[in-house]
């Protein structure tokens, strides 16, 4: 079954730790995204990728980095976590389309990060 | 700046009809999306409008007026499982999605 998977679902870590949030999709989508979502707030785009070896920064300033070595895998890394990084992180993917086509996003279930 | 406005919270009764409004001010317009997000779960796609008018999909319908920068999502025959947040998002002139903060819909028996 085509899907998008995120691990871990929940993570509590101490300040200064390095963490990687994993995201994998089995739909063969070219475009992948990382969003940050806080309760009652809009989704903010942190990073996105058009395909292998492509990474772009989104509209939200972030101290995280991403890589896209394989089409299906788009991990997000925080080199040194801080309490301000506490949030829900959503990974998504879509087909690569241009214009006004409805390139629908498929989201993972999210990774809830708490930094103490 | 770019802005999308939705009511923060709405309450409706099981079996009734509810309309969730979304107004937007964006640099360009290349389509409007509605997503549903249950608490603690991933957002899932509901509807897409790029031309003016009504798109119907079962119990859910979505309307768009580009001249007014306005859309609504209409939910009929409400069920308890419709309790969720409903997210409005607009694709701007750079084909980037601008998201509203979502409307939390509470369904009461």
Produce the secondary structure layout.
The complex is a heterodimer of chains A (116) and B (109).
Chain A: E1 4-7, E2 10-13, E3 19-25, E4 31-37, E5 44-49, E6 56-57, E7 64-66, E8 76-78, E9 87-94, E10 106-107, E11 111-115
Parallel strand pairs in A: 2-11
Antiparallel strand pairs in A: 1-3, 3-8, 4-5, 4-9, 5-6, 7-8, 9-10, 9-11
Chain B: E1 3-5, E2 9-13, E3 18-25, E4 32-37, E5 44-49, E6 53-57, E7 60-65, E8 70-75, E9 84-91, E10 97-99, E11 103-108
Could you characterize the architecture of this molecule?
The complex is a heterodimer of chains A (116) and B (109). With 116 residues, chain A is an all-beta fold. Chain A contains no helices and 11 strands. In chain A, the strands form 2 sheets. In chain A, strands 2, 4, 5, 6, 9, 10 and 11 form a 7-stranded mixed β-sheet that branches. In chain A, strands 1-3-8-7 form a 4-stranded antiparallel β-sheet, with no helix packed on it. The mean pLDDT of chain A is 91. In chain B, the strands form 2 sheets. In chain B, strands 2, 4, 5, 9, 10 and 11 form a 6-stranded mixed β-sheet that branches. Chain B has a 5-stranded antiparallel β-sheet with strand order 1-3-8-7-6, with no helix packed on it. The relative contact order of chain B is 0.35. Chains A and B meet through strand 10 of A and strand 5 and strand 9 of B.
